[in-house]
Each structure stands twice: as C-alpha cells, then as structure tokens.
Input
Amino acid sequence: MTSHRWLTLPLRASALGSAALFAAAVPASVCAATYGTADDVAHRAFKSATAFADVLVAPSPEEAAALAAPGAAPHGPMRTIEARQGDTVLGRVMVDSVVGKFEQIDYAVAVDAGGKVLAVEILAYREGHGSEVRLPAWRNQFVGKTAADPLHIGADISNISGATLSCTHVTDGVHRLVAWAAKHPIAAKAAA
Amino acid sequence: MRRRARPLLGTLVELRAQGASATAFDVAADAAFDAIAQVHASMSFHEAGSDVRRIARARAGERVAVRPHTIAVLKSARRWARLSDGAFDAGCAPQAVARGWLPAPDDAAPPGALPFEDALEVDGHDVLVHAPVWLDFGGIAKGYAVDLAVAKLRRAGVHTGAVNAGGDLRVFGALEETVLVRSPFDASELWPVAALRDCACATSASGEVARRSGEAGDAPAPRSVTVLAPTACAADALTKIVWQQGELATPLLRRARARALLVRADGSVWQS
Output
C-alpha cells in the first residue's frame, strides 16, 4: 500500500540560509555504493564462456595518455578479463575508473571480439573526493526510525533524490576504452 | 539487498532487489535496463536519431511514426499540461538550449511559439506535427523510465526493491526507505526528508528548471522542489508544476495523491 510521510524538517526562513549551522561533518566516504565486480559483469556478458582469464594491460606512454581523461595523469595498468569458449575468445571486459568533481566511479565495459560494446556497468561509486559530505546534526532525530544505524541513512546514494549526478565522465571513459580496444583486437583464437 | 547500476538517461540508474535470487535478479535487471535504454534512445534530445529529434526536424503537416514509449510519454505530458493549465511544458527545449542545458540541434529549425499540446497530435503510433516543436521530456521521461523498470522487475518476479534514476526514485514492496535531498544551499549536505513505502519521489533543483516570470506571484524563486507521488512519472512532472505554481498547485497535488516540499531562495519552506 502506498504510504509516505515527511520527516520533520527543522528549517526556518531565518536559519535555512545558513543551513550549514546544522551540519556535522561525517566521514568523507559516507556517500558510497558497491554494485558488483568485474567478474560479475564478465559472467553476465559472456554466458556461454567456459573460462575467464585475467589479463593486465600495460599501456605504452602514448596509450596511457590516450586512455586518461583530458588533463588527468596518464592511465596506469588496466585490468581486463578475457572470456573464452574452448580456444575461442568471445570478448573481454575492461575495468577503469573516472574521477569527477566530487565522485569517483569504477566501471567495467564488456566488448565482443569485434570490439562492439555489450554492456557498461557501474562497479562502485564513491562521493567525497575533494569535499566533505555532511549530514545535518539533526539527523539524530531519525535514530530508530529505520532498521539501519542512523549513520547508514546517508551511507549510499540509493536514496538521494535529485542527486545531480552526471555520468558524462563515464561515457567519455567508455569512448576511450572502446577506441583502445579497437586498436588492440584480441586474437579470435587464444594462445594455447 | 542486491543491486546493479548502469550509466543511462545521462545519469546513474540503480536497481535494487530484496529477497530475489542472484539469477532471478540478473534476468529481471537485464530486462529493466533494456527497457530504460529504449526510453533513452527514443527520447534523448542529444541523440539525432531519437523520436524527439525526428519530431523537431519535422515540418508542419508531417506525420512521424514513433516508438510506443514516446507515444505514452507524450500522452502523459499532454495530460499534465492540461491539468496544470500549461505550467507543465514539454515544449521548453528552446529555453533549455538558450541556457546551455541542452545542445542546439544543427538539423532542425527553431520552433514557433505554439504550445506543444496544440502543435502535436497523437494518432495511433504516429505523431501529427501541426507546427514544429522542440520537445524536452527531461521533466517526465526519467520518471516514466523508473516506472517502466519497476514494472519489468515485478513481472520478472522481484517483489521488493527500488529504482533510482539520478534522483527519480521509486520503492516497491515491503520496504520503507528514507529519502535524502541535497541542500540547495550546500551540495555536500544531505537532508533526510521523507519515509517512502510503495511510493515515488522526485526532486528538481535550481540549475535544472527555468521559471517563467509572472507566475506564482512575487514569491522568491524556488531552489528545490521535492514531490512524493504514487508513480515516478507523476512525481517527476509535478516537481516542474510546483516549481512554476508554488502553493497554487495544491488542488492538483491532492488530486494526484501527491505531496510537495518547496524550498525557496530566501530559505522559506512550503510543505503540502
């Protein structure tokens, strides 16, 4: 049955302009969510695979620059997972992370042997990069109102309404990975 | 709680399920993500091949065949426009382009001033374009996509869970969730504002909605509007209406079994 109720907002015209007065700092990693692993993504994208192999890619200096976001430090070694069926390589999953203004997003891109994108999935999200995330001190009023520890109220992004969260960085990152994959086609037959 | 997330609709879309097996959730989540991707492809103003952009390119008198989701959203948008006396305006893409929130399409002439609900007519699976319109479904398509994802999850056997598309949130089944809203005055601060059960919630914050002058009296401009409603589509559309109308939206909120929280630039708060 549909139900909703407002929680008491102790906001007044005089006080709200400086709402920070209510705020208490909580650990910077308070806004975070973990969704799954790159192995999960590989298993979902390549259901007919019989084996998965971890391949750590060490990009050349030029590739490291091309893989990095504009203005960012060169990309380090990149984890990939090759999906195989017998000795045929079906495709691979590339693992990367992008840093936005306030957040870091780990994500994985699954591509088939021809380089076509099969799936892009978020692995983890962390907010607080470069800034503190704070919950108002009056959050204490919610103690006992949810099953979770009150500090867990803000412990992930699941319930933030109107989170101005842009995935532009992820989209740009996907383009860089796909461009890299196109230049490094995997051999259709895996080395024995 | 099982969860997956993908970058869709220009934001992070998160699906959660409680009490479902890993396999059942994976199958259900794949179906839900596929449906959201279809909404994205049909209604993105950024994608030149989307239905919205094909309508923008159409000349007066042209008939444009569109996907069923686009028809559903357009019908819903027309309904909200009618119920709100035009406060809900899906033809507002030109203003969003002028403000730099949307890219200017290089393949469509600027539209006229006719309201979108008069300029477009739905006929079966076609849209009859009486006058050119640039549609911006930003005020409703995300909510529609969330409702669609909830339906897909349920059909696939997920009875309890939640879908969050960049802040358009819906919880279903035996789950009560506290919703947090970012302070419009300090983005690093989160306000727990409501407890939801089988209910949707949407928030619009300044920087997303342009208010037309002359409406809602002389009250200070809104900075953040949150609406709780039975569906995400209604919550999404109603945030835009409350943004324009303020307290005047009370009868419509009641009729939609919805409630609103409006925070204005002077820090004053109105709750229905």
Notes: The first strand of chain A starts at residue 3 and ends at 6. Chain A is about 20% helix and 35% strand. Residues 21-140+149-183 of chain A form one domain.
